[in-house]
Specification:
This protein is α/β, with parallel strands linked by helices. It is built from 6 helices and 7 strands, in the order βαββαββααβαβα. Helix content is about 35%, strand content about 20%. The strands form 2 sheets. Strands 3-1-4-6-5 form a 5-stranded mixed beta sheet. The relative contact order is 0.24.
Length: about 180
């Protein structure tokens, strides 16, 4: 599972926030990786080339209500028109999937799970609509993993997600000038 986004750009940090929340609240079987992929471009191909299945979590810039959940299958992603210059919120995902297919590699099962952005601007916190939908988004990812045979279990001792970017920003603000 890949969480995509820039943790210093408000709602764009949704993907990494979901990854850290999943790590803090669920245990995963061997062979399942959760990765904060940052803001990859076409180099995403190297990350996905050898995978059997892939779930990407990202914030979406599209019409709709901020915080609205949206899910896309591999076929739906491949049916999108080509992206001129790419889009940081579906970072060349369509093109990467096509390139992997041409190379005879890549995951057969792909899903994009996300929510519509409320605010993408400098900052380390999610907007209220995205913060509110975070538990539903995490549950959606867990349900989609279960549908492809990946069984997770809730941790007995849940811990707070390690959102280091928020701690760092708070430390910078707290320091005297």
């Amino acid at each position: 599972m890949l969480g995509v986004g820039n943790v210093l750009a408000g709602d764009d940090g949704l993907g990494p926030t979901v990854v850290r929340t999943l790590e803090a609240t669920y245990a995963f079987p061997p062979g399942v990786a959760l990765l904060d992929a940052g803001t990859p471009g076409f180099d995403l191909l190297a990350l996905v080339a050898e995978l059997d299945a892939l779930i990407v979590v990202d914030v979406l810039r599209q019409p709709g209500t901020p915080g609205e959940l949206c899910c896309y299958s591999r076929d739906e992603l491949l049916s999108l028109p080509p992206q001129a210059g790419g889009n940081a919120h579906v970072p060349h995902l369509r093109e990467v999937l096509l390139a992997a297919e041409l190379r005879g590699c890549g995951p057969a099962h792909v899903e994009l799970v996300g929510a519509i952005a409320g605010r993408i601007a400098p900052g380390t916190s999610l907007s209220p609509p995205l913060a509110a939908v975070l538990p539903r988004l995490v549950a959606e990812v867990v349900a989609r993993l279960a549908r492809i045979g990946i069984v997770t279990r809730e941790r007995r001792e849940r811990r707070a997600p390690d959102l280091f970017w928020q701690r760092s920003a708070q430390a910078i603000v707290a320091q005297p000038s």
